[in-house]
Every structure is written in C-alpha cells, then in structure tokens.
Specification:
352 residues, mainly alpha, two-stranded antiparallel ribbon, 16 helices
Length: 352
Amino acid sequence: MQSSTDDPSQPLPMGRFERYLTLWVALCIALGTLLGVLLPAPMQALGSLSIANVNLPVGLLIWVMIIPMLMKVDFAALGEVRQQTRGIAITLLVNWAVKPFSMALFAWLFIRHLFAGWLPAEQLDYYVAGLILLGAAPCTAMVFVWSNLCRGNPQFTLSQVALNDAVMVIAFAPIVALLLGVSDIVVPWDTLLLSVGLYIVLPLAIAQTARYLLLRRGPAALEQALSAIAPLSMGALLATLVLLFSFQGEALVQQPLVIALLAIPILLQTLFIAALGYGLNRRFGVRHDVAAPSTLIGASNFFELAVAVAIALYGFNSGAALATVVGVLIEVPLMLWLVGMINRSRPWYESR
C-alpha cells in the first residue's frame, strides 16, 4: 500500500540500514562461511532438515522475507496489470526463451573450454549442471526484495512471479533435461511443486488474510503494521545468506580459484539478461515501475530451488551444489548494484 504522501515518480528513500546493505551482505557471507568451516557437522545437519529436498530453515526465512511485501498487495488494483501485457510478455520471453539457453552457452564456453585447464576435470560436468540449474530457475522470492527497492509495481511483481512459477512447474524439467542432454534425467517434481506452494501460495494466503484483518480496523492499522514488520524482510534475507553459505563454507575456503572462475559466467549472464530485459521494456514503451521488476526477475535466480535441486541430484559436496552457491555469492551484491542502476537511469528510461 502506498501512502498519500509518497511521490510515485521517485525511488523510495533508503535508510541507513539499506544504504549499507552491501556491507551487511558481505558480513553475513563471511559469517556463514566461517560457521561452515568451524562447525561443518552442525551446519550439514541443519542443511539436511528438508521435505522433498526443500530446506525447511531456508523456507521459513523466505516466508518471513516475502510475507510483509505480499501484505502490501491490493488485489483490487490487479485490473491495472491486465494493461501490462508487454511487460509480462517480455518477462516470459527473457526467462524461458533466452535465459536458460544463454546460461548453458556461457557454461559450455567458459567451463568446458576457456577455464577447463584450471578446473578439476572430474567436476566439469557438475559445474555445468549447476549453472544450468541456476539459469532454468528464474527468481521467485528475492524479486519482491529487488522490486521493493526500485519501487516496482507490487501487483505486477506478484502477477509475474505467480505466472513464472506456473511456467516453471511445466518447463523446468524439460529444459534442464534438454540442456543437460539427458532425456531420462531424474528431476524431483515434489521439490518443484512444494517450492511453489511454500514460496507463493501459502505466504500469499497468510499475507492477504493478515491484510484483510488489519483493514477491518482501518487503513491506519495496516500502515502501522507494515512499518513495524518491514525490517523483518531484510533480516530474513541476511539470515538466509548466513545459512546458505554455511552449507558450503569449507568448499568456498578450499577452492578460491574455482569460485572465481565459476563467478565469471554467472556475472556475464546476469549483466546480459538485465540489459536485454531493460532494453526490451524501454523499446516497447513499458512503464518504469513495471520494467524494473520485469528486468530483475530475469536477472536474478530462484537460488533456493537451484541449490535444493543440485543437492538432490548430485549431493551436498558436488560441483553442482557449489556452482549454485557461487550464484548466490554473485547475485546479491550484483543485484543491489543493478537496482541502483535502474533507479539512477529512470530519467534516461523515461526520455524515450
């Protein structure tokens, strides 16, 4: 919900905490890695707490991260989203017709050819598999964070996430199977279906129920509640990073060159997809508050799902699991940078 004092033409002002979010992210990554090195057994045990290979602690934190944002969604305004067919079309085009294949291309070029001599030969296939899993899993939960930071349209953000996840249930396994070149690849369908339920359906139901109950007490009650719980989203993001990096702490410390080499194709992929999505939205006259989440959902990844599937298919200590965690390492600071670029470039974008 937007208060009457907000100016929708300007990005939301960033408080002191948000201004130094990159620093907090770096500290959480360092803390998670340290925990993984010093306490590997407890961290691995925590990582094994799962249903259908969806990690329960991470899933709970995702709820805490997105429920406050979903409470802002006013479904009475969803009629406006029907007018944003170009933004939705660009989201689907970039996420499903371009992104998985460009990631596979970058993985093939860098992992199998340019960097093959510096990487463990027995892990090359697993590194490629991990990158493909990242590319085939567009963002779900984190896009609410990025959209909020660049003042994206919340109804559009929710709609594209819901539609994207519906496509994911159908397209994820065939695309992964195609790109891995294995027609009978084992894909955990229960993981995919449970992830959609955990990260979209149930949080949305809880958020909208809470919104309804608060609005019965008046708009001021909703505004007050949203202000009170807003810090929970960022806190849950940081706690999620601590957990994910603790699961791979030892590998991150022992293989710094591997981490750096895996980061390069992920970095190039993110920049390419962001530029493509933002450029297409501008070319076809999509509003900036729609173009921002449309761009960011493709540039970021559903890393929780990618990590879960990599672990399910190849194990905690596989190159595939490591590649997906490197994706998290690259994604968070890079996405914060992209959010800043999108906010700063708004005058250029709207000058078309």
